[in-house]
Amino acid sequence: MVLIAVFVLLVFGYSLVSQRLQRTVITAPMLFTFAGAATILLPEAARELVVDRELLLLFAELGLVMLLFTDASRISPSVLTAGRSLPLRLLGVGTPLTIVLGAACAIVVLSGLSWWEAAILGAILAPTDAGLGQVIVDSERVPLRIRQGLNVEAGLNDGLSVPFLMLFIVLAVAKDNTVSAGGVFVRLLGEQLGYGTLIGIGIGGLGGWLLGVAHRRQWMAPSLGQLGVVALPVLCVIVAEATAASMFIAAFVAGFAAQFAYKDAGRRSVEFAEDWGQLFNYFVFFFFFGTSVADIWGSFTPDVLLYAVLSLTVVRMVPVALALLGTRLSRATVLFMGWFGPRGLASIVLGLVYLEREANLPGTPTIRLAVIATVLLSIFAHGMSAQPGINLYARRIAGLDETSPEHLVPGDGSPEPPHGPRVGT
């Protein structure tokens, strides 16, 4: 109970001064990561953490399931399919290139990793964190189109990275155990991806349809609509566990399917995420990330630190630049979007998912070190550079014409109004 008590007191204390801290460079991930690392000074808390690790991991997995469902349930097809769509470019081109380049850099910089182990690392670190980039999303000094592009990318690239991660894990295990990679690939498609997709379509489609009927006929109390939507991803977890399918793929597909049958699915799931999502974020940064940093602080090597720097710069910025070719965006905008791709919550949980698989790969210790070093560097580098970065970017684009690509309203190609709506509302 010591750990829980420390966490609850920290949440309460942060809530008291959260408004004041927003005007500083101190972010919630910084604070909770530091506090989690400091628990190493409490022997009783350290013993509790070892005992409750499995239970804590279950909470983290459920949190990622909810996050994936919420992200998918609010996908706007018009935003993704609009001409010169930034989210579609960043997701369809940028994310796969980030995984490939991340794997290539890992092979060069980190000794001892196989190609599949390097690919696992690339997939874990490919997703960006919308929470760490919230300052960018909320700033009206950044054009609406740029804010929305980064926001949608961060909301969906974790869902895109999950199938890659699952594939690379089974292929790495197959190679290490001299099992037929072709057979493993077929089994992955059938069980993890195939069953997961079918479960998501079934639960999301049928559940969304029932919620839609109940809503139209006024059978459902407005206050309980949120719980009805939240039950769908939890049901995906239960069915996926019983069928050896991927709960993450099932939840992501269910969120996408539910919105077509129940138009309020996205809004309801976002309401839940806004109410409880922050608490989940703090939970993961405190219990999992902060304590992990304390355990391996002295194990960071120069090559691991170099990879962390490359992951946040070259591995992120080159794919973004390639994805944005032909958009006529200014160099300042391309650099801004390339730099602000923070790594955080999704990478932590995907790393935990990988460790839970107990693949026993030779490169696992190196993968763990590289993930922790990259996320830790991102928390502080992106958190401290957010406001200065916005100020510099705003000055660089101040002279752009209203008809410039930066100021197009997402979806219709017209210039945005002087003060666009906040993304995600």
Report on this model:
With 425 residues, this protein is mainly α. It contains 18 helices and no strands. It has helices at 2-21, 28-38, 43-51, 53-73, 77-81, 86-109, 115-125, 134-138, 144-176, 181-216, 225-243, 247-261, 265-296, 302-312, 314-323, 331-339, 345-356, 364-396.
Give a brief rundown of this model:
With 425 residues, the chain is an all-alpha fold.
Uncertain spans, ≥5 residues at pLDDT below 50? 412-425
Estimate what percentage of residues fall within beta strands: under 5%
Largest sheet: none
Distance between the termini: 37 Å
Structural class estimated from helices and strands: mainly alpha
User: Could you give the order of the helices and strands?
Assistant: HHHHHHHHHHHHHHHHHH
Task: Give me the Rg, rounded.
Answer: 21 Å
Tell me, briefly, the overall form. globular
Quaternary assembly: single chain
Q: Please count the beta strands (DSSP E, at least 2 residues each).
A: 0
Number of helices: 18
State mean pLDDT (0 to 100 scale): 81
Measured as a percent range, the helix fraction is: over 70%
Quickly list its features.
425 residues, mainly alpha, 0% strand, disordered C terminus
Question: Would you spell out the secondary-structure blueprint of this structure?
Answer:
Layout (H helix, E strand, L loop, with lengths): L1 H20 L6 H11 L4 H9 L1 H21 L3 H5 L4 H24 L5 H11 L8 H5 L5 H33 L4 H36 L8 H19 L3 H15 L3 H32 L5 H11 L1 H10 L7 H9 L5 H12 L7 H33 L29
Helix pairs in contact: 1-2, 2-13, 4-9, 4-11, 4-12, 4-13, 4-17, 6-7, 6-9, 6-14, 6-15, 7-9, 7-17, 7-18, 9-10, 9-17, 10-11, 10-12, 11-12, 11-13, 13-18, 14-15, 14-18, 15-16, 16-18, 17-18
